[in-house]
Amino acid sequence: MSSLSTPATGGPEPLLLLLDPAARQTDGESVRIAKDVLSGGADVKVAYPESPSELDRVLSHRGRRRPVVIGSDLALQRVLQALHRQRELGSDAVGVVPVGRPDELSASRALGVPGAPVAAARAVLSGVPRKLDLLVDDGGGVALGGVRIPGGGTRRPVGRSSGWRSLWAKLAAAEQGTVLTAAEARGEGRGETRGEHGSRLRVEADGRLLVDVHRPVRAVQVTLPAGEALGEGVLEVVVRTPGALLRARAASVSVVGRGFGYEADGHPVGPVRARTWTVHPGCWGLLLPAA
User: Which of 37, 59, 84, 257 would be a feasible disulfide site paired with 121, CB 3.0-4.6 Å?
Assistant: First the structure.
């Protein structure tokens, strides 16, 4: 059950602090420091959502409070996904204080969020919002930076991972997946999807065929471009096949197969039979240091 508390301090911008349960286990000291800094500069409520439904409820009842995520990239991804589902993604810029293992924070740091808890908390209090793009799929999922489909199938079990210590993530891991039979998930039977050299996938970019099922695929990478292309409403797709590397830019990319898993921001999803990703330019805001 979630717990809400309101410190006595006030501030011009009321905040809703969303603590990933895993963050307190990973680095409780950083969580405490972040809470102290934020409570010293704003009126805050602290929530500990323990399921996707609780996260939805807390966000839908936040009023004027700005969401601030204290946790990993996955925690931020889950909050953005909930806001997208509630059609509130662009209503207010989101703050982030990254807490977790280094491999769980790569997306936040790539976006410019300070790694130290004090600096990240100060960016929430006095930073400026920056509009950013987001990958949104037709299953209701989002990705901050990219999606990868490994050609030989995921090495770890699809839909779960020992690294996912957040309870929300464990409970919501199958939200975007299509249920397959055990044989289909293993690639058995007629039309086997995974061969010795890769998966059998059909990949299209804006309706243009890049590769069909007769050609093995070793990997598919879908990413949001950086630099000048940011905000142009395009994504970059790279398809690796034996002996070739195919690249394209498009507004959307579709992948079809008999059953494939993929990773969104490094976290496993699926297996699914089909998925389409579309870039939503400048659809959400992130508080970053003013300098």
Answer: 37
- Left if phi > 0, otherwise alpha if psi is -120 to 50, otherwise beta: which for 152? alpha
Assess whether 194 and 249 both reside in one domain. yes
pLDDT in tens, 45-79: 999 998 889 999 999 999 999 999 999 999 999 99
In the beta sheet, which residues pair with residue 251? none
The answer to whether the beta carbons of residues 13 and 66 sit under 8 Å apart is yes
| Co-location of 61 and 152 in the same domain | no
DSSP type of residue 9: -
Assess whether 87 and 166 both reside in one domain: no
| 233: confidence class by pLDDT, cuts 50, 70, 90 | confident
Query: Between vectors from CA 157 to CA 152 and to CA 158, what angle results, nearest 5°?
Result: 75
Q: What CA–CA distance (Å, rounded) separates 186 from 193?
A: 9
Q: What is the pTM of this model?
A: 0.79
